[in-house]
Every structure is written in C-alpha cells, then in structure tokens.
Write a structure and sequence with these properties.
Layout (H helix, E strand, L loop, with lengths): L2 H4 L18 H11 L5 E6 L2 E10 L2 H6 L11 E15 L8 E6 L5 E8 L7 E14 L2 H5 L6 E3 L13
Parallel strand pairs: 2-3
Antiparallel strand pairs: 1-2, 1-7, 3-6, 4-5, 4-6
Amino acid sequence: MGKRSKVSRLFLAPVLAFGLSGGGAFATEQSATQSACRLDQVELRGDWGQARFSIELADDEAERATGLMNREYMPKSAGMLFVYPEAKRVSFWMKNTLIPLDMIFIDSAGVVQKIHSNATPHDTTPILGGDGIKAVLEINGGLSRLMGIKPGSHIRHPAFANTSAAWPC
C-alpha cells in the first residue's frame, strides 16, 4: 500500500474527553477498547480523564524532518505523532512552523515524561525532550494545559509494544 494508507486522513476524529462512571462504564470501556490502537489516532488517559486525537504518523526521517511545518491551521482534534525506531534523546524546534504547538514527550512504555507548552512559531531555539523518548505528540498550543494532560499520563497507540506498554492495545 502507498503512503496514504500509513498517514491518517488528518483532522477527521473529534477530541473526546470522557470519564467512566456508573452502569455505563462497561459499554464505554468496551467501545474505547474496540476503537483503540489505530495508526491514525492516539488516546491519552490520566487522572484528568481521557482524550482521543486524529493524527498523522511521522515514523521515518523525512516525515519527522518536515513535521507540521508550513501549516496555517490544525483542528483541536488533530495532531502529529513522531515515532522513533528506538528511544533516544530528542529535541525539536519551530522553524517554519506557523502555529503554536504543545510537544508531549513520551517514553517506550507510552508514559508522558515531559510537556513543552505553547512552542513559539518560527523559533529555532532547541526544545529538549530528554533521554529515553520513543515518541512525541504535537497538538495545538495550550491544549495540554486546558485538558489537564500532564507527565505520568498514558498514551495508547500501536507504536508502543504491548508487552511493555503502560496502556496496551
């Protein structure tokens, strides 16, 4: 299959913030499990609740180098997941990036290690993610804080091995 099958139909799924409560918990949990672990979406959870983003996947050198550059708009329900073959020290910058972004740095188990909020468009100052980073989720600037996403939150996506994932598929 071509490149189009790997990259999502960006911006299609709404952001869902939901909690599990009462008698409907089983149905909600079952629905979340059935929709989980698609290449074109990520789910996050923490004591703040849960969220789902439609994503583009940047999992090769060329895609990671281009990222979200030169885009004038991104819906709140969308993002880009940068995935590396192995966990390592990573840093990003905002060169040629037109919109403010939150950068969520994630380890191999799918646990959020660091969040850089509201990265400034066009800024070439390195944004350090730290060591042992397997993936970086970029979403609209300020959205992490608004939703309550913080270090320790879990992410679910096929990029994180089921055997070591904090929230497996």
